[in-house]
């Protein structure tokens, strides 16, 4: 598809930006139609959308970790973090709170991440460096910053009236998760393009013409004489 070509990234970037704008417009329409409680409360419309987006991101990352050999270490770590984020979305449920104290959960999560990084340590930093050179990394990092920094620092009760801070925080987090998903979609496109180039290169190496060229002019002349004799 032409839309997936490398030179079409600016157009895809515009589509990704438009998807974030659509998120905000949808939230605004839902607030007008159903009220802010339906939209921004725990397990409301926004949090349900957040959980869905994170789950989709995690599924795509698991797929990329399986099919992308060069970027498998970084995708495996990101897939685990995304799955943990899905689990974290249920932090206000009774079963989640009854499991373990929050501090213990954080320690276990950090230990699991450290163990995973240690297991893939040989190729982790190389894959991380390669991923950061892709356009997908820009979208992923930008979305991560929106979720972890802007949504937490801008949406404060000191800056906004009662309950509006909650709505702004959830809206920014949803926008950030949308950008993260767009980044992983872009990573999937990059993997697809790389696989296509590798397949074409492998096909070219296996063609008889290129095989003869690699074996030199003497082999080509011998092959030509053989063909000439057969034609007689």
Q: State the total count of DSSP E strands.
A: 0
- Write down the secondary-structure element order: HHHHHHHHHHH
SS-based class:
mainly alpha
Q: What's the Cα radius of gyration? A: 25 Å
- State the separation between the terminal residues, measured CA to CA: 47 Å
**Major sheet details:** none
Mean of the pLDDT scores? 82
Q: Helicity level, as a percent range?
A: over 70%
As residue ranges, the low-confidence spans are 217-228
Q: Which outline best applies? A: globular
Strand content: under 5%
Number of helices: 11
Total of domains: 1
Task: Describe what this molecule looks like in 3D.
- It is a single chain.
- With 232 residues, the chain is mainly α.
- The chain has one domain.
- The protein contains eleven helices and no strands.
- The longest helix is centred in the last third of the chain and has 42 residues, at 164-205.
- Mean pLDDT is 82; it is low at 217-228.
């Amino acid at each position: 598809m032409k839309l997936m070509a490398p030179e079409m990234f600016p157009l895809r970037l515009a589509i990704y930006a438009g998807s974030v704008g659509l998120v905000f417009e949808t939230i605004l329409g839902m607030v007008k139609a159903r009220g802010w409680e339906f939209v921004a409360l725990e397990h409301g419309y926004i949090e349900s959308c957040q959980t869905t987006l994170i789950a989709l991101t995690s599924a795509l990352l698991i797929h990329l970790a399986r099919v992308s050999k060069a970027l498998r270490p970084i995708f495996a770590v990101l897939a685990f973090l995304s799955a943990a984020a899905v689990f974290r979305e249920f932090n206000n449920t009774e079963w989640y709170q009854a499991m373990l104290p929050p501090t213990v959960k954080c320690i276990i999560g950090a230990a699991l991440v450290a163990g995973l990084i240690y297991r893939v340590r040989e190729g982790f930093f190389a894959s991380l460096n390669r991923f950061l050179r892709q356009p997908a990394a820009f979208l992923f990092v930008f979305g991560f910053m929106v979720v972890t920094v802007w949504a937490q620092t801008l949406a404060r009760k000191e800056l906004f009236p009662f309950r509006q801070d909650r709505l702004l925080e959830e809206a920014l987090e949803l926008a950030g998760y949308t950008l993260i998903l767009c980044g992983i979609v872009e990573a999937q496109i990059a993997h697809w393009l790389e696989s296509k180039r590798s397949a074409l290169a492998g096909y070219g190496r296996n063609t008889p013409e290129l095989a003869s060229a690699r074996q030199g002019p003497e082999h080509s002349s011998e092959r030509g004489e053989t063909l000439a004799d057969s034609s007689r």
